[in-house]
Write a structure and sequence with these properties.
By secondary structure, the protein is α+β, with helices and mostly antiparallel strands. The protein has one domain: Hotdog Thioesterase (Thiol Ester Dehydrase, Chain A). It has two helices and six strands. A six-stranded antiparallel beta sheet has the order 1-2-4-5-6-3, covered by helices on one side. It is globular, with a radius of gyration of 14 Å.
């Protein structure tokens, strides 16, 4: 297994606080997949407004965390080092549960197709083994 701490993640992708949404990578294979985690704290800035009476992590931020996990996979490949992966599209996205303070979110993105600078990743976010978000993410490396 290939592990990455936060400093090593920051060497691969350009995201920084408060928009870096991965805490660590448990395993990855450059160009193929990455499995990471987001440990959700009540102190997350977005909880102040989403929603104060019932804090829930915004679904779009979960999709972004999945995309960042996929970016670790694709940008760790030798030919993509130092580049940026941009969103090209989001398809088949389903929200199946809530993410709340105290959750440890498992983020899995597997690269299933690549052609030139464009690729597609199948992504699943889960909490305690239950899928909370799934999506097909298209990326463009630039």
């Amino acid at each position: 297994m290939n592990h990455l701490n936060i400093s090593e993640i920051k060497e691969i992708i350009p995201h920084r606080h408060p928009f870096l949404l991965i805490d660590y990578i448990e395993d990855y294979k450059p160009g193929e997949y990455a499995v990471g985690y987001k440990c959700v704290s009540y102190r997350e800035e977005f909880f102040a407004g989403h929603f104060p009476q019932e804090p829930v992590m915004p679904g779009v931020l979960t999709v972004e965390a999945l995309a960042q996990t996929g970016a670790v996979a694709i940008l760790s490949a030798e030919e993509n080092k130092g580049k940026t992966a941009y969103f090209g599209g989001i398809n088949k996205c389903r929200f199946k549960g809530k993410i709340v303070p105290g959750d440890k979110v498992r983020l899995e993105t597997k690269i299933v197709r690549k052609k030139g600078p464009v690729g597609v990743g199948e992504a699943i976010a889960s909490v305690d083994g239950k899928t909370v978000v799934s999506a097909e993410l298209t990326f463009v490396v630039g």
